């Protein structure tokens, strides 16, 4: 039995008639760019996430770039983020002309360690970008407190954590709604994934939202009247139509992911010392966009599972401070030891809502056979 890392076709088959009807509706309408589906999706995602405004863009990467631009962050500025994330987080900082400043991660959560942030803040620091990695919220309460003390903006990278929740003492908030801006990705493998690329920016500030709407259409305030040098970053109407269908199902899919994760936890519990299952922070609700374990002899385990027909992925094999493109920052191996250690140990196992119990049992059995 083959067990893929993800199976997008199975999700499509489960809602095929709804998706097809939505897509056909767009095609027959003749309105393909920034039409009613984009506007409705923006309203629906804003309500779901508990924010006033949502602006659809072409990708999660663009969401980060436009968010930074909307805050006026650029050359000579510094932005603090994690070195243990997908490249786009730091890439967006670089693309607007700013400097990414890395802060090491927490051992258990894989997210940026707030205890280490203040030591990296200088006059040039303008923002913090915490990443909610694998679907687990970062420690937002202390991050927001630090940002408040130093008058910094917070841009949440919630690309992997749509629907995740953070528990404050008096309230519970969806990720993406906590910082000044929140960035979403609708890449097909995400909790809420489209049929191609797509992204969205969340904010409670109407002025920022208006700037974002201008930036996404080449900086035009009106047709052919440009007040900014912007981007071509519009969320496609076809993608919005598909995402509106999927948004109705996302909560049940997240719950299914959590159930799969619990089964993995149970089946792998006997491998303590060899495998560490994902730690779930007590102040938040993990959505398991990825089910990521630590494993001894990670690379050998991955090769073994591949031979057995089991899909895996390493998110991420090289900490960003060691990437060739950031050699000019002067970082070296050993500067961020927690991130570097994680890069050598993490492996993500098959995870998607339609994953069957017998498939999870097979994966766990083969991991036990390896050890």
UniProtKB/TrEMBL annotation:
CDD domains cross-referenced by the UniProt entry: AHBA_syn (cd00616)
GO molecular function: pyridoxal phosphate binding; transaminase activity
Record-annotated active site: 190 (proton acceptor)
PTM sites of type N6-(pyridoxal phosphate)lysine: 190
Keyword set, alphabetical order: Aminotransferase, Pyridoxal phosphate, Transferase
GO biological process: polysaccharide biosynthetic process
A Pfam family hit: DegT_DnrJ_EryC1
Family under the similarity heading: Belongs to the DegT/DnrJ/EryC1 family.
Protein name: DegT/DnrJ/EryC1/StrS family aminotransferase
Originating organism: Aerophobetes bacterium
């Amino acid at each position: 039995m083959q067990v893929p890392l993800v199976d997008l076709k199975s999700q499509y088959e489960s809602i095929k008639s709804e998706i097809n009807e939505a897509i056909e509706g767009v095609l027959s309408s003749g309105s393909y760019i920034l039409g009613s589906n984009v506007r409705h999706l923006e309203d629906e995602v804003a309500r779901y996430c508990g924010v006033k405004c949502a602006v659809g863009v072409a990708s999660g990467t663009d969401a980060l770039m436009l968010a930074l631009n909307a805050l006026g962050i650029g050359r000579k500025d510094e932005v603090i983020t994690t070195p243990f994330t997908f490249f786009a987080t730091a890439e967006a900082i670089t693309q607007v002309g700013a400097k990414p400043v890395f802060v090491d991660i927490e051992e258990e959560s894989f997210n940026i360690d707030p205890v280490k942030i203040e030591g990296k803040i200088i006059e040039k620091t303008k923002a913090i970008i915490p990443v909610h990695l694998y679907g687990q919220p970062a420690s937002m309460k202390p991050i927001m407190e630090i940002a408040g003390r130093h008058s910094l903006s917070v841009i949440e990278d919630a690309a992997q954590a749509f629907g995740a929740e953070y528990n404050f003492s008096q309230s519970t908030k969806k990720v993406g709604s906590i910082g000044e801006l929140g960035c979403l990705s609708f890449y097909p493998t995400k909790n809420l994934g489209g049929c191609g690329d797509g992204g969205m920016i969340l904010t409670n500030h109407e002025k920022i939202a208006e700037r974002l709407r201008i930036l996404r259409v080449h900086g035009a305030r009106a047709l052919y009247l440009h007040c900014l040098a912007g981007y071509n970053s519009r969320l496609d109407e076809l993608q919005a139509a598909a995402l509106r269908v999927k948004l109705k199902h996302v909560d049940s899919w997240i719950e299914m992911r959590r159930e799969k994760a619990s089964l993995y936890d149970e089946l792998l519990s006997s491998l303590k010392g060899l495998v560490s299952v994902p730690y779930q922070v007590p102040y938040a609700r993990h959505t398991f966009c990825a089910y990521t374990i630590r494993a001894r002899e990670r690379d050998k385990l991955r090769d073994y599972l591949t031979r057995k027909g089991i899909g895996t992925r390493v998110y991420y094999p090289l900490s960003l401070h060691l990437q060739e493109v950031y050699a000019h920052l002067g970082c070296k191996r050993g500067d961020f030891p927690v991130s570097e250690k994680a890069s050598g140990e993490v492996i993500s196992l098959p995870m998607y809502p339609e994953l069957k119990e017998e498939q999870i049992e097979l994966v766990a059995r083969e991991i036990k056979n390896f050890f």
